[in-house]
Task: structure prediction
Amino acid sequence: MAKNNKKKKKTSKKRTIFSKRSLAIVILALLSSLVVVYGVNYFELFNTKKQIQKHTDASTDILMDKMKQMLEEEKKRLANLPKYSKVKEALKLPPITVEKTKEVEKQNNFSEIKDYKKSLEKKSKDPLVVAKTKYTGKPKLAIVIDDVAFAHQTRMIKKIPYKVTASFFPPTPRHPDTVNLSKDFGFKMIHLPTEALNFGRPEPSTLVVGDSVEKMRERIKQIKRWFPDVNYYNNHTGSKFTASYEAMDKLMQVMQEEKLHFVDSRTTADTKAPEVAKKYNINLYSRDIFIDNSIQPDLIKKQLKKAVAIAKKRGYALAIGHPHQNTLKVLIGAKNLLKDVELVYLKDL
Result:
């Protein structure tokens, strides 16, 4: 019995040792596997990080190149902006509210019309218009939109489904973007500020009756630098300026030197533009009718019908309106009303 117990103890001891050894081997194998798996994963992760870093570096280089290109383009754009001496001041001015802008526009537009009506009280007849040529075929009508200065105006003008001519203000601190806005239009004009009889808020650098030829020449050259491809100018306000033979004579002299065309907005019945045009033997473009003496839609349509009647009677007509919301809305929907005339740019009259 004693011998048997000894054998059992030995057998039990051997099994225990074998079991521990086996366990150790299993643990070692597991650890080795974990090390291998971790090593492989780490290697893959390292390679992935390296690739991501490489891709990020490449993307960063591309982004930097694009930013450099954008900066260069911005420098070129800024270099082409109007070299107006007070643009920096414009940046310091408080933003103009829509209400204020509309109020100023109304003052501008109705000042022109008011001065014209007053001048008619003193004069029985309007001045004769110097016709460019004799017309045959379908009557032609050119519609000019004066006082264009802001993006909300140009957006609406571009919705008009036929040819109209936008006349832009030269840039000022109050409306510094007119050069850039004008680039969206193939044919456009300059709305040249000239002295009025009754207007309390003239544009900067408005030409006045007492200006010398040299001063007018410098002003026109300055505008030409801003708008090198624009050759047609019409007067903004100007009820006093265009009624002065001396002032108009000096301006026409400069316009001829610069190979520019003058369009008489006829803000006064006393305009001397026809007389001066005859002196220089040039054809004069002259307004026949304002389409928005009132900004009531029905009255704007009535004026458009009058413009059509003038064109049908004479073969052509020139109408002037302003960028009032109502005026532009009527024009957008007036294609059928204007079906009896050919809508043309002013240069094609």
